[in-house]
């Protein structure tokens, strides 16, 4: 399956990512909606402000990727390695938040569940 990368503002097709390593790629602000990026090597990539809604990122290597203000709603993030990535301001669903917290072994508890010392 061929995935096209389009720039959000110009609509220009920039390249095809089929079978391509995107390690360290500068993809800032691109429209990557519904892209098939399963097991993609995106280590250290610049994905700031990218629209990744509905993309398949299953098993992708997103270590040290810059996802600042990226739209990840509806992405399949199962098995992704997000170690060291910047997710500040990224848009994610409640389900994705819970999945990411679980992957990081973080449990959120209500204040009422905490016993006083």
Description:
The protein has 117 residues and is mostly loops. The protein has a single domain (1-117), classed as 3 Solenoid (Pectate Lyase C-like), CATH 2.160.20.80. Helix content is 9%, strand content 9%. The protein has a three-stranded antiparallel beta sheet, with no helix packed on it. The N and C termini lie far apart (58 Å). The mean pLDDT is 82.
Q: Keywords for this structure?
A:
elongated, Pectate Lyase C-like, single chain, little secondary structure, 117 residues
Helix-strand blueprint:
Layout (H helix, E strand, L loop, with lengths): L3 E4 L5 E4 L13 E2 L62 H10 L14
Q: Give average pLDDT, whole number.
A: 82
CATH class label = Mainly Beta
| Strand line-up across the major sheet | 2-1-3
Approximately what portion of the residues adopt beta-strand conformation? 5-15%
Instruction: Please count the helical segments.
Output: 1
Structural class: little secondary structure
Could you list the spans in which at least 5 consecutive residues all have pLDDT below 50? none
Taking the sheet with the most strands, its summary is:
3 strands, antiparallel
**How far is the first residue's CA from the last residue's CA?**
58 Å
Give the C-alpha Rg: 16 Å
CATH topology heading: Pectate Lyase C-like
General form: elongated
Task: Give the domain tally.
Answer: 1
Topology, number of strands: 3
């Amino acid at each position: 399956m061929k995935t096209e990368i389009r720039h959000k503002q110009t609509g220009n097709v920039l390249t095809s990512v089929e079978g391509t390593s995107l390690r360290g790629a500068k993809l800032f602000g691109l429209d990557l909606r519904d892209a098939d990026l399963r097991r993609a090597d995106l280590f250290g990539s610049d994905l700031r402000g990218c629209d990744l809604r509905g993309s398949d990122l299953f098993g992708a290597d997103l270590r040290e990727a810059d996802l600042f203000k990226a739209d990840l709603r509806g992405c399949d993030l199962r098995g992704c390695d997000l170690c060291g990535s910047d997710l500040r301001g990224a848009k994610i669903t409640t389900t994705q938040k819970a999945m990411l917290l679980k992957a990081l072994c973080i449990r959120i508890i209500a204040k009422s569940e905490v016993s006083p010392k």
